[in-house]
Fold:
Amino acid sequence: MSTLRVAGFLLVSAAALTGCGSETPPASSPASSPAPTSSPALVSSPSSSASPSPSSSGVAHPDGPLIAANGTDLKSCRDGDCEVILKPKDKIAFDARLRVTYLAVDSVSADSVTLSAALPSGTRTSISGNAGGTNGIAYTVTAIKDGKAVVKFTPKP
Structure:
């Protein structure tokens, strides 16, 4: 590809990016300062202001407040299908068909939660991690901040 074609491509690319809210003035001619030095900043700038990416465990650590579909309404989980913000000592009761009487939050660490499950048989078990389940309930931790976690519960088939 010739230098003139590359310069023309860069000029068109810079002009397109400038039309997307950039304050960088367009280059006046192909002979002027090439756009590549400013294009990477224009391209990477929007993604750098996006929400933080999940950690290696897949759990996000947001800068802003935790948001869950059902907020802190733990009663919304009765049917096993909810997304709530949990903290230690929270307790969620479930319908008998899910074969879990309740789950209690023991702790919230940097990338996981530890839950105690009370089963209808009277047995108690502990489950820990950023995803798991017991009997008819599965869970996934999607975000953690300040000792609280956003957890999505779904009924197991």
Observations:
- The longest helix spans residues 3-18.
- The beta strands are 82-86, 91-93, 102-108, 113-118, 124-129, 131-134, 137-145, 148-155.
